[in-house]
Amino acid sequence: MDSLFFYFWFLNFVNDVCNQIANDKHLQNGYHAIGFSQGSQFLRAVAQRCPSPPMRNYISIGGQHQELQFEGVFGLPRCQGSIKLCNFARMLLNYGAYVHVIQAQYWHDPLDENTYRDKSIFLAEINNEKVLNQTYVENLQKLQNMVMIKFTRDSMVVPPESSWFGFYAPGQAIDVIPLKETELYKNDRLGLLQMEKDGKLHFLETNGDHLQFTEKFFISEVVNKFIK
Predict the structure, then answer these.
(1) How do residues 92-101 score in pLDDT, each as one tens digit?
(2) What is the domain class of 2-227 according to CATH?
């Protein structure tokens, strides 16, 4: 059950974390945020919803900014097929498409974009794909840097380009389009187009599977360039 708990629990706690950060005396002058995997979306939601104290640099490591797919099934991350509980969880995830517990989080079906936008209350909401929340745009643009790290052999984030806001072309699940070709970017619904013009977007990649990176890469490409 720990796998299920970890996958679902944090999505209800953005506001709680915002309050904790706001009340932490050590963070009042600003802070850096590093999100690993699903934590990347969580911290981006914090950046968009809670501008004070300021998040200075946002580091997304293996995040799923457009969707999460695992082993060809839109489902539960890092849950091995030999585990009966995981198979049962996948069945529930697929059977329960767009009910509260699932689509409130990550589910993004490239074959049914309209239903995704209508029913998703987490991913589509923080991506400004439902109602345009200008506050999200303004808060995200307050970042000094937004760093997104993609793993070239990622077997958990499918397509791996999701770590850079890339996604499948509309209406199919084969061809992947980069961020700049998405409606999210072209219509600047999150302010990413403007952030790139301002030099705030940074796209890094490393040759490895999900969250497999060296200390040398992390120190040289992340710490030395964005945190020191």
Answers:
(1) 555 554 454 4
(2) alpha beta
